[in-house]
Amino acid sequence: MSIDPALAFRGTSLTFANGTRALHDVDLEVRPGEFVSLVGPSGCGKSTMLRLAAGFETATDGSVEVGAGRLGYVFQEATLLPWRTVARNVELPAELAGVPKAERREAARDAIERVGLAAFAKHRPSQLSGGMRMRASIARALTMRPELFLFDEPFGALDEITRQHLNAEVGNLFARDGFAGVFVTHSVPESVFMSTRVVVLRGQPGEVAADLPVPFPFPRDPELRYTAEFAALASEVSAALRGAEQEVPA
Ligand SMILES: Nc1ncnc2c1ncn2[C@@H]1O[C@H](COP(=O)(O)OP(=O)(O)OP(=O)(O)O)[C@@H](O)[C@H]1O
Questions:
Q1: Residue scoring higher pLDDT (122 or 173)
Q2: Ligand 1, pocket residues at CB < 6 Å
Q3: Which of 10, 78, 99, 106 sits at 20 to 30 Å (Cα–Cα) from 22?
């Protein structure tokens, strides 16, 4: 018996009201237990795909199906409220959803613990590093126990070491919780390290140019990055990306 996809784009196209064609006839399924990275040239529609999955945009042709389930969304910016502590920021989605106080405090405590921020729960965002703010943002999404977890280039502004730590931590969360993940990035090594599949898009309008499985088991050791198998796959993704960037837009 096949499992229903957590997310499916079926012949999906989106043209914005101003005439910009962002996506053209995209077919992509993400199943529970898959972590799919989207890479592609700037403007090829990666963020638009996440916004469609979250219901912030509507397809102009084809459909976007999201399996019945809870959604987590982590943005490029941590988007924390500066006047609230980490704990109060993390409990905000549950608060807005009307979850009773004791229950949402417990969920926030658990999520903060899991991203390694327990000692900073009472700090305000301005007292944290960029990496810690992003951890808080991930914890906030975790409180909703997402079955589909969307990441819009969350680590682009971080230094390389912090980024690699967070790559491994999100990988551990994925290995433990088994959500379906969709992760937008401009980094080829990050896409390979994080994913069970890398989807390369070309634009504009955005279309799927390549879909490459990544066979390494989870949890993944950061040292994986220095193996020959990893280098071979990363160079395959880079080649597909170079091909996608050279194509003349329609
Ligand atoms: N609300 C909007 N109205 C009109 N055009 C839009 C809107 N949002 C995005 N676009 C356009 O749609 C195209 C796809 O944008 P999108 O942000 O999805 O690309 P992206 O691949 O995520 O880019 P980047 O890698 O630079 O973040 C771009 O040409 C962008 O300018």
A1: 122
A2: 16, 18, 20, 22, 40, 42-48, 204
A3: 78
Supply the CATH number for residue 3's domain: 3.40.50.300
Kindly state whether residue 14 falls inside one of the protein's structural domains. yes
What ipTM score was computed for the predicted complex, to two decimals?
A: 0.97
Residue 52 token pair: 């469609």
Dist. CA 8–CA 29, nearest whole Å = 4
If one residue of 20, 37, 58, 241 were mutated to test the ligand 1 pocket, choosing by the most ligand atoms within 8 A of its CB, it would be: 20
Whether 244 maps to a domain, the answer reads: yes
Q: Domain residues for 211?
A: 1-69+189-250
Q: Are 187 and 151 in contact (CB under 8 A)?
A: no
Higher pLDDT, 97 or 52: 52
Strand boundaries in 31-134, DSSP class E: 35-39, 61-66, 71-74
pTM higher than 0.90, yes or no? yes
Q: Tell me which of 48, 200, 201 to substitute to probe ligand 1's pocket, judged by most ligand atoms within 8 Å of the beta carbon.
A: 48
Residue 110 lies in a domain: no
Please tell me the distance between residue 157's alpha carbon and the centre of ligand 1 in angstroms: 19
Query: Does residue 208 lie within any of the structural domains?
Result: yes
Total domains present in the chain: 1
Q: How far is the CA of 204 from the centre of ligand 1 (A)?
A: 10
Place of tokens 């230094």: 159
Q: How far is the CA of 197 from the centre of ligand 1 (A)?
A: 23
Residue 184 Cα to ligand 1 middle (Å): 13
Confidence of residue 198 (pLDDT cuts 50, 70, 90): very high
- Integer angstrom CA distances of residue 91 from 100, 108, 201, 250: 11, 5, 35, 45
